[in-house]
């Protein structure tokens, strides 16, 4: 191996994993680091649209958990946490205290009426009950739901039966969006995800994109090369103890689409699992070892969509009691089989696999911090795929009509604008985030994200949200993964990291 001073590291992808890896290396003794980014901005799946002069996060939006979360610590040091208190501590149900439930028959439902069922279903995800349930989240949820029904047999009035059915479907939709998969039979219960204590939905002044920007500013000039997609990584298959040291040659050649090549000792690949699945057979020369390829193929990578509906002025009330409340309101929609609304503005008439219109099951509309006249809607994969290419006007009208079908006690004006995400069509994301798939096998765990050809000769290393066992799918998982991968590389050179990411920023 080269020495630390003449070692060359190329990091591919300037999302938060790539930025944190590059920072850690540069500030801890590896001077020659290049960060290659395909797109024209830093942040990857953290990106904002400006709405009313404030950034609205199209990708990562919330810090999930506070205690032990380095992203929270960095944001707090930067004084970007607007709300000191946490009204949605992890001990509480997954749903938000600001939820107002409506049925498709236009009735308001008190949260308490569905709370017990929601809490039972939430426990499945909190891993408090796993024994005796099937491997997939779907099996576990079905099992809990039928137990709930049988334990309450004879006690549920007929009107509530249908509400429970709808609440169950609501919860499934919530889990689909949270995990970016619309097939819960593919979502494994066997996840090592750790829920950090503290507010589950902490928001950040200036958005998550502001945080990435502040971190990236600490990189020395010249490290980042934007608009530079990497098309090929030639690595040396043979594991070696170090014949290259004497020859001075570097084992890896990174080729960019613009024809430039860079010789390197190590490459840290941080592209999304969606991109890796799509490109690994052409990206790596030779191919990655078969078990590593299989582990990638077996990892789940999903898709969700966000819609921001902008109104002339808010028609909802701000129930925040003080500016210290981290509180957002949300309207939750329970779709009753007996009352499926007719939506005139649905001109496309596109149907889901189960034969419902694409907008069936839009389950929530939420108010947004810093955007007092915007409501945010989350779509699952199928809804995104079916509505993706519809004109903005049609999607805007359909969403408004859905809202009007549920919320009858407040007059709902027409929105004035719509903003939509498009993570699937972007060749440099190809979806939103990874999830624990039922296809991921025990043997995959050993190979997923391991250095190639080996830990002793780590030419190609991997980092990104998907490789964080405890925090898979999250922004903090990606940051920690980049940081850990850099630490591993530093340790190969006998270097102990003395500067942490948090040391690099100041308010
Ligand atoms: C809609 C949405 C909502 C989310 N909400 C939250 C949330 O509220 N909280 C949370 O914690 N997380 C959330 N996440 C997840 C979070 O955004 C990601 O986990 C995290 O940002 C991933 O960072 P990364 O560095 O691993 O990958 P990325 O951000 O994808 O970075 C990889 C980079 O590689 C680049 N790249 C790809 N191919 C190439 C190539 N061939 N050559 C060079 N560069 C390439 C890409 O352009 C990209 O910049 C959300 C994500 C999405 C999309």
TrEMBL record:
Organism annotation: Aplysia californica
Gene3D superfamilies cross-referenced by the UniProt entry:
3.90.660.10, FAD/NAD(P)-binding domain
Q: Which parts of the sequence belong to the Amine oxidase domain?
A: 16-487
**Cell compartments where the protein resides:** Cytoplasm
The UniProt family comment states:
Belongs to the flavin monoamine oxidase family.
Record InterPro entries? Amino_oxidase, FAD/NAD-bd_sf, Flavin_monoamine_oxidase
Which keywords are on file for this protein? Answer: Cytoplasm, FAD, Flavoprotein, Oxidoreductase
Q: Which gene encodes it?
A: LOC101859525
The lineage's top-level taxon is: Eukaryota
Task: Output the Pfam families linked to this UniProt entry.
Answer: Amino_oxidase
For this entry, the protein name equals: Spermine oxidase
Cofactor(s) listed in the protein's UniProt record: FAD
The coiled-coil segments of this chain are: none
């Amino acid at each position: 191996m080269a020495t630390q001073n003449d070692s060359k590291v190329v990091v591919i992808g300037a999302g938060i994993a790539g930025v944190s890896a590059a920072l850690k290396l540069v500030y801890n003794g590896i001077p020659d680091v290049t960060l290659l980014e395909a797109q024209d901005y830093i942040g990857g799946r953290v990106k904002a649209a400006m709405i009313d002069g404030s950034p609205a996060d199209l990708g990562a939006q919330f810090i999930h958990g506070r205690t032990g979360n380095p992203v929270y610590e960095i944001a707090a040091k930067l004084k970007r946490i607007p709300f000191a208190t946490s009204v949605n501590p992890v001990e509480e149900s997954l749903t938000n205290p600001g939820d107002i439930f409506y049925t498709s028959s236009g009735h308001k439902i008190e949260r308490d009426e569905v709370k017990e069922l929601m809490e039972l279903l939430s426990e499945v995800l909190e891993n408090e009950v796993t024994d005796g349930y099937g491997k997939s989240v779907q099996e576990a949820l079905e099992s809990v739901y039928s137990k709930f029904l049988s334990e309450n047999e004879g006690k549920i009035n007929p009107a509530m039966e249908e509400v429970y059915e709808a609440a169950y479907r609501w919860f499934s939709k919530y889990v689909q969006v949270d995990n970016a998969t619309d097939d819960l039979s593919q979502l494994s219960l066997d996840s090592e995800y750790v829920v950090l204590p503290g507010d589950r939905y902490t928001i950040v002044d200036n958005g998550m994109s502001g945080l990435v920007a502040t971190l990236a500013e600490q990189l020395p000039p010249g490290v980042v090369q934007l608009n530079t997609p990497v098309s090929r990584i030639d690595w040396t298959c043979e594991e070696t103890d170090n014949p290259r040291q004497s020859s001075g040659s570097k084992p890896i050649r990174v080729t960019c689409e613009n024809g430039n090549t860079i010789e390197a000792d190590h490459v840290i690949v941080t592209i999304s699992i969606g991109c890796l699945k799509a490109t690994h057979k052409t990206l790596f020369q030779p191919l990655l070892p078969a078990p590593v390829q299989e582990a990638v193929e077996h990892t789940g990578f999903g898709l969700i969509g966000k819609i921001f509906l902008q109104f002339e002025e808010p028609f909802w009330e701000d129930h925040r009691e003080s500016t210290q409340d981290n509180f957002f309101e949300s309207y939750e929609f329970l779709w009753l089989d007996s009352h499926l609304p007719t939506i005139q503005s649905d001109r496309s008439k596109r149907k889901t696999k189960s034969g419902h219109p694409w907008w069936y099951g839009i389950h929530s509309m939420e108010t947004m911090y810093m955007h007092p006249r915007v409501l945010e809607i989350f779509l699952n994969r199928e809804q995104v795929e079916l509505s993706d290419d519809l004109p903005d006007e049609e999607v805007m009208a359909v969403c408004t009509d859905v809202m009007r079908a549920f919320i009858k006690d407040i007059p709902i004006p027409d929105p004035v604008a719509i903003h939509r995400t498009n993570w699937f069509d972007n060749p440099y994301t190809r979806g939103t985030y990874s999830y624990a798939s039922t296809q991921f096998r025990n043997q995959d765990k050993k190979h997923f994200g391991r250095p190639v050809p080996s830990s002793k000769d780590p030419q190609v290393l991997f980092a990104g949200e998907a490789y964080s066992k405890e925090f898979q799918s999250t922004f903090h998982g990606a940051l920690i993964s980049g940081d850990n991968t850099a630490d591993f590389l530093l340790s190969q050179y006998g270097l102990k990291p003395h500067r942490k990411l948090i040391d690099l920023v100041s308010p």
